[in-house]
Amino acid sequence: MKPLVAGNWKMHKGPKATSEFFERFRTPCQTDEVTLLVFPPILSLTAARKAVDKGGIQVELGVQHIHSEVEGAYTGETSAEMAAEAGASYALVGHSERRQLFGESDADTRVRVAAALRAGLVPLLCVGETLEDRQAGRLEAVLRRQLDAVVAFPELGESLARSETPLVLAYEPVWAIGTGETATPEDASAAHGLLRESLRAAFGDQRSRSIPILYGGSVKPGNSRELLSSPDVDGVLVGGASLDPRSFAEIAGSAC
Ligand code: PGA
Predict the structure, then answer these.
(1) CA distance 245 to 243
(2) Cys-Cys crosslink for 119: which of 80, 112, 159, 241, Cβ 3.0 to 4.6 Å?
(3) Could you tell which of 4, 218, 220 is best to mutate to test the pocket of ligand 1, judged by most ligand atoms within 8 Å of the CB?
(4) Which DSSP letter does residue 121 get?
């Protein structure tokens, strides 16, 4: 499977800083070696699209948050269709900051995954446990609950079971996000193994192996190579270290 290196910029970089990033970003990889993906803030998506197209830069773009409806009276929201029109090809769903700070539920992640697929976007579904969950031995139960809310749901699950329906997962332990604390490669592999097992139970062996599982949580140039070479880790989702074009390029370089 081709590794996927994704950068989640969160609420960083307006249109100007976004254009500047892409002026400075130089990928060390060939297109066929690794897929690179950036999630800028929605307001900077058009600037990112322009910069990437103008520079012939091999980077896919995604949207950090989508509403489930196509359009309507939902002040402040953006539909998957609008993001696709502005140049996104991926949609982040269920990031722990959305779950924790904005109260997104498992049911919300399900309708957003469905909305992404409806608009032709690849859903990138994030799951992960809090420190409290981990210490209480609830890792497996939490991951299964978050994943099953999407993959075991009638119709949506049937659609995702088909190999032509795109899906990417990211395992992001909440205690490792933005804290400088990274899961060990062994912890990451163990959690990814649990996710792969759940996918296998839902979709069968072949399909389960076609769904990339990324690791996220304090990924940096100094730890990305080791994480990327761990069993069942198919890529990384990078927050803070994706904001600097050089460090994002270094992380990309550890995948090719
Ligand atoms: P971080 O964020 O790399 O800054 O820990 C990861 C994420 O939230 O996706």
Answers:
(1) 6
(2) 80
(3) 218
(4) P
Alpha carbon nearest to ligand 1 atom 9, residue = 239
Cα–ligand 1 centroid distance for 175 (angstroms): 10
Domain hosting 92: range is 4-253
Structure tokens at 238: 């990078």
Q: Count up the domains in the chain and report the number.
A: 1
Q: Give pLDDT tens digits for 48-68.
A: 999 999 999 999 999 999 999
* Residue 91 contacts residue 123 (beta carbons within 8 Å): yes
Which tokens sit at 93? 């769903």
- Whole-number average pLDDT of the chain: 96
The structure tokens listed for 75 are 């002040």
Based on its alpha-carbon atoms, the radius of gyration of the chain, rounded to whole angstroms, reads 17
Q: What is the CATH number of the domain that holds 218?
A: 3.20.20.70
**Residues whose CB is less than 8 angstroms from the CB of residue 214 and which lie 6 or more positions away in sequence, other chains included:** 4, 6, 124, 168, 169, 170, 171, 233, 234, 235, 236, 237
Q: What percent of the chain has pLDDT over 70?
A: 100
Percent of the chain with pLDDT over 90: 95
What 19-25 contacts at long range (C-beta under 8 Å, 24+ apart), as own/partner pairs, is: 19/47, 19/50, 19/51, 21/51, 21/243, 21/245, 22/48, 22/51, 22/52, 22/55, 22/57, 22/59, 22/245, 23/51, 23/55, 24/245, 24/246, 25/57, 25/59, 25/245, 25/248, 25/249
How do the residues of the chain divide into helix, strand and coil, expressed in percent and rounded to 5? 45, 15, 40
What spacing in Å lies between the alpha carbon of 171 and ligand 1's midpoint?
Answer: 11
